[in-house]
Amino acid sequence: MKKHWLFTWRGLTRSIAVRFALLVFLLQVLAVVGTGVYAERVMWERFERHEKVPVIRLRDGAMAQYRAAGIDGLTRLIKERVSDRYTHDIALMLSDPSGLILAGNLANWPTHMVGTTNWSAGPVRVRGTGRDQHMGMMTTELKGGYRLLVGTAIIPEERIISAYARSILLSAVISIAVSILIAWIASIMIAKHLNGLAKIAAKAIEGDFSGRLTISGSGDPFDDLMNWINQMLNRLESLVGELRLVGGGLAHDLRSPITRLRVTLDRALRESKDSVSLAAMQKMMVETDTLLAMLNMTLQISNAETGGGRERFTEVDVSKMLWDLAEIYGPLAEEKGFKISVNVADGISVLLHRELLGQALSNLIDNALNYADGGSNIMLSAYRHNKIISITVADDGVGIPVHRRADAKRRYGRLDNSRSLPGAGLGLSLVEAVARLHGGDMTFADNAPGLVVTMKLPDKKL
Amino acid sequence: MSVFLRCNWYGLRGNDCVQTRILLVEDDDATASYIIDALCDEGFAVDRANDGRAGLALARRGTYSAIILDRMLPEMDGMAVLNGMRVSDVTTPTIFLSALGSVDDRVEGLRAGSQDYLAKPFAIAELVARVHALLRQTPAADHAARHVFGDLILDRIERTVHRDGQPIDLQPREFRLLEYLMRRAGQIVTRKMLLEGVWDYHFDPGTNVIDVHVSRLRKKLDEGFRQEILHTIRGVGYRLGDADE
Question: What pTM, to 2 d.p., does this model score?
Answer without folding.
Answer: 0.61
